[in-house]
Design goal:
405 residues, alpha+beta, endopeptidase fold (from Nostoc punctiforme), 2 domains, 7-stranded antiparallel beta sheet, 3-stranded antiparallel beta sheet, 10 strands, 15% strand
Amino acid sequence: MRKFMLLFTFLSSILTLHSQDLPPVGDSAKFSILTCSPGEEVYSKFGHTGLRVYDKNSNVDIVFNYGIFDFNTDNFIAKFVAGETDYMLGVYPTDSFLAEYALENRVVGEQVLNLTLAEKRKLYNALKINYQPENRTYRYNFVFDNCATRPFLKTMEAIDGVINFDEIADEKSYRAWITEYTGENTWTQFGIDLIFGKDADECPSQKESIFLPEVLASELQTATILPKTGSPRKMIIEHSNLVSKQPSETSSNDALISPLIFNIFLFILSLLVTIYGGKFRNARKIFDCTVFVASALLGLIILLLMLFSEHPLLGHNYNLLWLNPLNIIPAIVMWNKNLRKFLFFYHIFNFILLATALVVLALSIQAFNIATLPLLLLLILRTLKAIDRGRQKLFKRHILNKKRW
């Protein structure tokens, strides 16, 4: 991360030095899509895309990069979570761009675009206009407007015709596409699956799937340009690697314990609490309080994201059925004996929500992460136990009241 920040500062200084005018290019200029392979850090797991302009005769070799953002922006973390992050277009020498990815040992592939002279001029003029200080900033959207979609959109607008893609072989949901890069049983994907709602299970169209840089590169490689006049031509005329991955010791950032194993451990712990909790009343109450507080806080985060975040794919999240923000209520009320009756009926209400979540999972109404199941069963187990305990206490109180009468 430190190396990334140093490089970012260096590249930002280059951006400032060349912020006013872009050099002219001649008719021999080549335009190409640069695709950077995924990195190890979370922010780099999905890869990156740049648009290179190279003119040997004019001594111009620059990259248009739509992935620049400023960590020093006021309330950066809050804005990022809310989906209100502004990215901007940066331009700097290709050598500097490639050096960053060589340092991180990531592949950078180049696909030279098969553009006519008029299309090249139109594309470069559009990029220059986009690079003006008043135009270079844009509201980043992970799916619909990012570092991959922007270069493609600018290229598509410059083409005098349409881009024809090959038929896609298989359809995948947004969630499935993202899982390919994060891994199925990782903490990153577990967190993503918690905050992603039912919308993430929709399948993007072929053009919508290019929000992932490697998918864009794959689609462009077999695409053709259908001009308004003339014969169809291939979209890509040359493909090569500008930076290759070097042999290195294999290292993994994966956690020692996967979310599935960890959550299974929690479920086993809940079984032990259920069996032996009667002998350790205080420990059992602390365990239940912790479980309900944790589920309430996670549910509150999901609810706030669903209601207020501009990030796509966060709507209609059925995880709120089992991560119920109202679970803060039993965490507090369980310590007050006078509210046992209220607590009993709350647990019945919560069990209905948990059972509904189990149905949603079983019927695949929304895709749940597999590591969710042990936690869902844990909450069902402890809620049923709380209902049984409440029923017994209310029954005893009813019997005592009858005897007194």
